[in-house]
Amino acid sequence: TLELVGMLTAAGLTVSVMVNILILRLALSPIAQLERTAARVQDGDLEARAPYSPLADRDLAHLRWTFNGMLDSLAMYRRQLREMAARALNAEEEERKRIARELHDGTAQTLAALMIRLRLLRAAASDAERAAKIDEIRGEIAGALEDVRRFARGLRPPALDELGLVPAIEAHARVMSAASGIEIDVDAESVGGLLLPEAELALYRIVQEAISNAVRHAAPSHVQV
């Protein structure tokens, strides 16, 4: 009888331990799922999400919700980065096309015309005529040099390095206003020392493009930054 009681007791303890182990595993399975999802994300599967578990208590359910929300935010942030990179690349390409077009249609044609004028200079009938043509050629050379300087300022405005962001924007607005005849006002406070150089350049480019788009496409009588 004692042996039977001992066997039943041992069997009961064994069953109890096994049941507790099973319950513990079931209780910890949501954490294991989170761990496996995190490992998948670490391996590069950015679409992985922790699955719903009916065994999770309120705290674990909230942890799963927070974890998946973090992954969703990360995915959205990556998409935004890709979109911004694509827009930046397109903007750079459009800027290259614009500069190439202006060089071809402006500076290159001016230089070609100068070469023709230099050939005609040899056939000048008198010194006075030759001097007049030289003055014309000198003026066109000065114009071509100013175009090159304008291209250089467009690629990297010296005022941004020498004066700072706001004065550089104000200087650009004055140049655009003088060239287009459109009144352009800038209302800005100094941000000297608050931004990284890359951020200042990015803001300058944004404002530069915005003014250019307004002047080219909106036919405004007044532009305000």
Percent strand: under 5%
Count the beta strands: 2
Q: What is the C-alpha radius of gyration, as a whole number of Å?
A: 36 Å
Please bin the fraction of helical residues. Answer: over 70%
Pick out the low-confidence regions: none
Describe the structure.
The protein is an all-alpha fold and 225 residues long. The protein has 6 helices and 2 strands; from the N terminus they run αααααβαβ. A two-stranded parallel sheet has the order 1-2. The model has no long low-confidence stretch (mean pLDDT 81).
Topology:
Elements: H1 2-42, H2 58-122, H3 127-155, H4 158-162, H5 165-180, E1 183-185, H6 197-218, E2 222-224
Helix pairs in contact: 2-3, 5-6
What attributes does this structure have?
single chain; 225 residues; mainly alpha; two-stranded parallel sheet; 6 helices; 79% helix
Question: What is shown here, in short?
Answer:
By secondary structure, the protein is mostly helical. The protein is 79% helix and 3% strand.
